[in-house]
Amino acid sequence: MKTLTKILKYILLFFIIIIVGSTTFYWENDIPLDVLIKKYTDKESEFVTINGLQVHYRDEGDPNDSIPLVLLHGTGASLHTWDGWVSALKTDKRVIRLDLPAYGLTGPNPAGDYSQQYYATFVNDFLTKIGVKRCIIGGNSLGGSISWNFAVKYPEKVSKMILVDAGGYAMKSKSVPIAFQLAGLPVIKNLFKYVTPRSIIQKSVENVYSDKSKVSEKLVDRYFELSLREGNRQAFIDRMSAFRAKGLESDNSLKIKSLQIPTLIIWGENDFLIPLDVAQKFHTDLPNDTLVIFKNLGHTPMEEDAESTVAVVKTFLK
């Protein structure tokens, strides 16, 4: 019995050493905001104060376009996810994109609220602040969910809508990025705030791409480094934990059928996070929509193949 107890103590000690060693090895401090601003802003970048948040955004293209295209990114991403689309559209169209609260250079909401209703109100406050009275709203994943919630809440402010692998209905994912899983787990999520291996971010990005070879080192660096902006990891944990506890705010999904605006639905056929059957639900419920499915693309088709997907957007905008 004493021998067994001794063995168990050694095993426990071994695991403690492994945990402490791994924590020390993978510990990541926050990256100072000024360092991130220097690297991830350009001449088009601006900041505006919305409810105490310094919101990073870019307003590009035709300044006389009174109904601009407003693009909202997904969970864990930033306004940079739209780089390819903006490059192709800004010669003819005014395009506005921003880092949503909890992500990119904008950082966390001081109130810790990341509900769909909060985000819809936030987008309205942002657009009001910069003088946009009406827009074409578009978004990917979380951004897509915010887009249709915004359209439901402020229908007079939306002329058209673009949903890219958008959230909105109860569904069962076929595959979930590991970062999403860890951030929602008890105990583990507390470590995730400090222990954030770059490899987990890389695996998470690869998870939402169909062609893993397109996940470059530069792309992973951007996702990884912006996740280390002060407060972003805690905000990510708060969002994932709330989602795990409450699920979708599904009551509002019943209102999708009420949206009469022209809508373009873009979906990657190999999206295993928000599967294709969700696209079909949007297609069924929206009375004035066009559904375009891209083979060999995943959850972020606008990032994985900007050229092919933006061609459809150009047609829709015309």
Automatic annotation (TrEMBL):
<feature type="transmembrane region" description="Helical">
    <location>
        <begin position="7"/>
        <end position="27"/>
    </location>
</feature>
<dbReference type="InterPro" id="IPR000073">
    <property type="entry name" value="AB_hydrolase_1"/>
</dbReference>
<dbReference type="InterPro" id="IPR029058">
    <property type="entry name" value="AB_hydrolase_fold"/>
</dbReference>
<protein>
    <recommendedName>
        <fullName>AB hydrolase-1 domain-containing protein</fullName>
    </recommendedName>
</protein>
<feature type="domain" description="AB hydrolase-1">
    <location>
        <begin position="68"/>
        <end position="305"/>
    </location>
</feature>
<keyword id="KW-0812">Transmembrane</keyword>
<dbReference type="Pfam" id="PF00561">
    <property type="entry name" value="Abhydrolase_1"/>
</dbReference>
<keyword id="KW-0472">Membrane</keyword>
<keyword id="KW-1133">Transmembrane helix</keyword>
